Amino acid sequence: MLQNRDTDQIARWVTEAFAAHVQAVQDAISNPRKLKAARGFLTGQVMKLSGGQADPRIVGELIEAELAKIAARLGLSEREAYWKAQAELIHAAVCARAWNDHKKAFTAAFEGDSLDASLLLMHEVGFLAADDFRFAATVAAIERELRHGDYIFRYVEEDDFGAPENAFIVCTYWYIHALVALGRNDEARLLFENLLSRHNRHGLFAEHLDIRTGEQWGNFVQTYSMVGLIHSAIRLSKRWDAAF
């Protein structure tokens, strides 16, 4: 089964699981005796929402980070420190085991060799600063391996449907976000304008794009393609005080 590493989507599942199971969240934050069971339960609920496809490593990191935020808001400094420490352990493990020194990039899995376009979100979700050399290096690796013309593939390895032939539209938007974070705004704007020209007559996007013809493929309308468009437009827009 293909793992889902879409950090934005997994974060939404985490939020949904937390909202639906408030008692488990309370136990995880304030009851050390129930901590392990509550955390395991919340992880299970996120995996259930994802149909078993969410990457457990990303699920764990996002749950730890969210619990730390909640503890901070509640003024539970001891629990905040605990959850921050747990998140830092996961962060350290990812840095140690998902960095491929040969590729000079983070990879899709521990001790892995393949790339996934969701790595473009490492700055977006706060995992790496934009000026961290590893972020720029990972973007460069994705450009070498996943970029085809003006579009970004999610990955290039064969899956249940064979070798990918079409680009995920949202992945190109993620690439635009990364370029803006790296200060490459002119490149980002050109890619954005090109992708924007591929919408249908209603201004909507599907899930995939044929890189040869520009024809849209897959699920339609695809929400995360539209969200990617909005986020890219925001990042490329001038500040109000500079626009007039």
How would you describe what is shown here?
- The chain is mainly alpha-helical.
- It has two domains: 1-97, Arc Repressor Mutant, subunit A, CATH 1.10.10; 101-244, Glycosyltransferase (Alpha/alpha barrel).
- It has ten helices and seven strands.
- The strands form three sheets. Strands 5-6-7 form a three-stranded antiparallel beta sheet. The protein has a two-stranded antiparallel ribbon with strand order 1-2. A two-stranded antiparallel ribbon has the order 3-4.
- A hairpin with a 6-residue loop joins β6 (208-209) and β7 (216-217).
Compile the SSE list and pairings.
Layout: H1 7-20, H2 22-30, H3 35-49, H4 56-73, H5 77-97, E1 99-100, E2 105-106, H6 133-145, E3 147-148, E4 151-152, E5 167-168, H7 169-181, H8 185-196, E6 208-209, E7 216-217, H9 223-236, H10 240-243
Antiparallel strand pairs: 1-2, 3-4, 5-6, 6-7
Helix pairs in contact: 1-3, 1-4, 2-3, 3-4, 4-5, 7-8, 7-9, 8-9
**In one word, what is the shape?**
globular
Overall domain count: 2
Q: Write down the CATH class of the largest domain.
A: Mainly Alpha
Strand ordering within the main sheet: 5-6-7
Radius of gyration: 19 Å
Average pLDDT metric: 84
Percent of residues in beta strands: 5-15%
- Describe the main β-sheet briefly: 3 strands, antiparallel
Helix-strand topology string = HHHHHEEHEEEHHEEHH
> What is the terminal separation in angstroms?
51 Å
Number of strands: 7
H/I helix tally: 10
Helix fraction by DSSP (H/I, runs of at least 4): 40-55%
The parts where pLDDT drops under 50 for at least 5 residues are none
Structural class: mainly alpha
Question: What is the CATH architecture descriptor of the largest domain?
Answer: Alpha/alpha barrel
CATH topology of the largest domain: Glycosyltransferase
